[in-house]
């Protein structure tokens, strides 16, 4: 595999509804931004790009099959190669990695990954029904198909196993919403308190409306290229910022669609198959886990995302990361629920399984220099969702994983102020970040590592 | 030869639009003004009846009509699935049916849905739960009745429960639900 660079990106501002444009034209907003950010015009880029990957989740939302090709032709990319990827909430992350593969393999020198979703065409509760159809329609959906309910069940088990509290979950919501306050791309820019989160209407106990992301219309696009592709773009007049940002690791994992089917493995299997290298090498951590297992914990059950741990371990190995908390400068992760951000801290090895709740409230995942209105014991180490994440930015499913890629790229380029119109979310001297994309209850999870060549 | 129709029939159904604002003259200035037009939105219906097959899982539903709960088991390892699977995940072998109706069961995880998908909104608030059975390796998703949904508590996890069956089977997984034992 050869080096792959993330050169540029664009995001349409995510909104509750965008009736002013069709989905193709919304994709074009993100696409045009990505092109113009490297100083190229539309025909020049069209002439050079080798192909694309399209990302959208549900044909139901737009009552339109083959929407990918409709975006492809609207963007003037026919007859160049393209395909659509779909994997629930992880669709955007999968798309990014498919574009990476196209370039890394030598099949393309310049590939654009674009994604979108228009979720406003149906009412919220019909939208929830569409999303719930991404659960087993024989066994899960008919019982009361509702993804917020599924995640709520996962977190009640997490709370029971580890003592995680609703206030710790609320800290995630407060953090991400306040981060988004400084991000003009975010759908929700509100300052909330822990009390606001807990006093919001209950959706699926114990998750309130402010523990859960909203539905959105939006699009995002990212340009990936090989060294040869970069050369071709620059010869055509592109101005690509230095230092370059390279995609240095990708990882993916999966798990059973039905949560009920997830295994409950013993301590030895966990240690051999799932523990991070850091966990395996620590006497203290092995002892900690042995005690958990002695008290009845089994893995992953429904309280942890085995796919997330698998994807993280794979991406870390690829990128040569041994201590993710200290070797990653930030993470944009899939916080469709505050609970899943906490579970993902553990999957990604930022803390041990069972420690996600206290980690959320510690301050280690917060941004430096931002007043969250809460007392935090620790200094920031690895900000998580500096953009505001899905909870505040919105979650137009097919665009979300690519939005994360674009925001991560801007962090590593040091261009957050230019794009967000505010410098406060710029991580100083950020050299390496991770993006994490996650589908229904952890069925597909992708982790990709982006790194500045500074 | 009969005269072929040259007009599509005008109907009174769907959208009948009169007087949508539009410039009288289609001069360049008016055409440029169209860029400021608000979007037109129409309703599109989509309704389909599927003939869904439970395939190899069908005996589970037949058993539920007789107030029996079945599970699938790998014949060699004994790994048992509370939610049926035709083949074992680990051996790849075809599973066998076993009766777990009288096994001890308890709540593994739960939630109270105060909102839901459109189809289930009339049921809210309702309790969703994953049930674990003695000697069974995987869980079963169900509705939990007999508990106050407004008094949700983590203490519900671990609570012994027992199955109840609908008298009039609907051939759905909701033919069985659980109540505190």
Secondary-structure element sequence of chain B? Answer: HHEEEEEEEE
Overall shape of chain A: it is globular
State the fourth-level CATH superfamily of the domain at 5-122 and 215-245 in chain A: Thiolase/Chalcone synthase
| Cα distance spanning the termini of chain B | 79 Å
Q: Low-confidence spans of chain B: pLDDT under 50, at least 5 residues?
A: none
Mean pLDDT of chain A: 97
CATH topology of the domain at 5-122 and 215-245 in chain A: Peroxisomal Thiolase, Chain A, domain 1
- In one word, what is the shape of chain B? elongated
| Major β-sheet annotation of chain A | 9 strands, mixed
Structural class of chain A: alpha+beta
Radius of gyration of chain B: 28 Å
Question: How many beta-strand runs of chain A?
Answer: 13
The number of helical runs of chain B is: 2
- What is the strand tally of chain B? 8
What does this structure look like?
The complex is a heterodimer of chains A (454) and B (181). Chain A is of the alpha+beta class. Chain A has 21 helices and 13 strands. Chain A has a domain at 5-122 and 215-245: Thiolase/Chalcone synthase (Peroxisomal Thiolase, Chain A, domain 1, 3-Layer(aba) Sandwich), CATH 3.40.47.10. Chain A has a 9-stranded mixed beta sheet with strand order 3-2-4-7-1-8-13-12-11, with helices on both faces. In chain A, helix 17 crosses helix 18. By secondary structure, chain B is mostly beta strands. Chain B has a domain at 58-180. Chain B is 8% helix and 24% strand. Chain B has helices spanning 28-33, 58-65; strands at 70-73, 80-81, 96-99, 105-113, 126-133, 140-144, 160-165, 176-180. Chain B has a 5-stranded antiparallel beta sheet, with no helix packed on it. Chains A and B meet through helix 6, helix 7, helix 8 and strand 5 of A and strand 4, strand 5 and strand 6 of B.
């Amino acid at each position: 595999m050869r080096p792959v660079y993330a050169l540029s990106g664009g995001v349409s501002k995510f909104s509750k509804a965008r009736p002013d444009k069709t989905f193709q034209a919304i994709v074009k907003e993100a696409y045009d931004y990505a092109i113009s950010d490297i100083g190229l015009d539309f025909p020049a880029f069209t002439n050079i790009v080798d192909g694309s990957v399209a990302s959208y989740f549900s044909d139901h939302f737009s009552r339109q099959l083959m929407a990918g090709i409709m975006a492809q032709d609207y963007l003037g990319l026919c007859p160049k190669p393209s395909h659509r990827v779909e994997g629930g909430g992880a669709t955007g992350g999968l798309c990014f990695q498919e574009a990476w593969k196209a370039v890394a393999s030598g099949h393309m020198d310049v590939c654009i990954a674009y994604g979108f979703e228009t979720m406003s065409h149906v009412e919220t509760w019909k939208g929830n029904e569409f999303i719930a159809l991404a659960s087993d329609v024989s066994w899960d959906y008919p019982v009361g198909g509702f993804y917020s309910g599924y995640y709520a069940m996962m977190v009640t088990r997490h709370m029971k196993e580890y003592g995680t509290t609703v206030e710790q979950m609320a800290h995630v919501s407060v953090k991400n919403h306040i981060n988004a306050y400084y991000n003009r791309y975010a759908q929700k820019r509100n300052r909330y308190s822990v009390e606001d989160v807990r006093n919001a209407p209950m959706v699926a106990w114990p998750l309130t409306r402010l523990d859960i992301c909203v539905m959105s219309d939006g699009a995002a696009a990212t340009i990936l290229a090989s060294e040869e592709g970069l050369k071709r773009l620059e010869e055509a007049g592109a101005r690509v910022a230095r230092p370059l940002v390279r995609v240095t690791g990708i990882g993916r994992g999966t798990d059973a669609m039905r949560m009920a089917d997830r295994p409950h493995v013993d301590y030895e299997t966990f240690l051999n198959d799932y523990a991070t290298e850091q966990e395996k090498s620590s006497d203290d951590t092995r002892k900690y886990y042995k005690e958990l297992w002695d008290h009845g914990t089994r893995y992953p059950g429904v309280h942890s995302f085995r796919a997330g741990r698998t994807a993280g371990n794979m991406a870390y190995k690829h990128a040569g990361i041994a201590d993710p908390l200290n070797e990653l400068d930030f993470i944009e992760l899939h916080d469709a629920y505050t609970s899943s951000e906490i579970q993902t801290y553990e999957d990604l090895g930022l803390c041990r399984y069972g420690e996600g709740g206290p980690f959320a409230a510690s301050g280690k995942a917060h941004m430096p220099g931002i007043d969250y209105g809460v007392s935090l014991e620790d200094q920031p180490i690895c900000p998580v969702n500096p953009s505001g994440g899905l909870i505040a930015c919105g979650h137009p499913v097919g665009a979300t994983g690519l939005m994360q890629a674009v925001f991560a790229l801007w962090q590593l380029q040091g261009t957050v102020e230019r794009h967000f119109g505010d410098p406060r979310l710029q991580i100083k001297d950020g050299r390496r970040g991770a993006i994490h994309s996650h589908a229904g209850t952890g069925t597909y999870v992708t982790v990709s590592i982006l790194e500045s060549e500074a | 030869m009969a005269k072929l129709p040259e007009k599509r029939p005008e109907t009174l159904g769907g959208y009948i639009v009169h007087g949508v604002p539009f410039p009288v003259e289609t001069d360049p200035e008016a055409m440029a003004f169209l860029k400021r037009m608000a979007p037109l939105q129409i309703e599109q219906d989509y309704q389909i009846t599927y003939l869904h097959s439970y395939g190899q899982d069908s005996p589970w539903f037949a058993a539920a009509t007789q107030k029996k709960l079945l599970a699938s088991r790998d014949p060699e390892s004994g790994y048992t699935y509370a939610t049926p699977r035709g083949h074992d995940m680990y051996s790849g072998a075809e599973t066998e049916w076993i009766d777990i109706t009288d096994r001890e069961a308890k709540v593994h995880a739960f939630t109270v849905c105060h909102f839901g998908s459109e189809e289930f909104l009339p049921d809210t608030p309702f309790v969703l739960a994953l049930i674990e059975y003695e000697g069974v390796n995987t869980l079963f998703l169900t509705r939990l009745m007999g508990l106050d949904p407004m008094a949700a508590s983590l203490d519900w996890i671990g609570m012994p429960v027992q199955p109840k069956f609908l008298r009039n089977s609907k051939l759905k997984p909701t033919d069985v639900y659980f109540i505190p034992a």
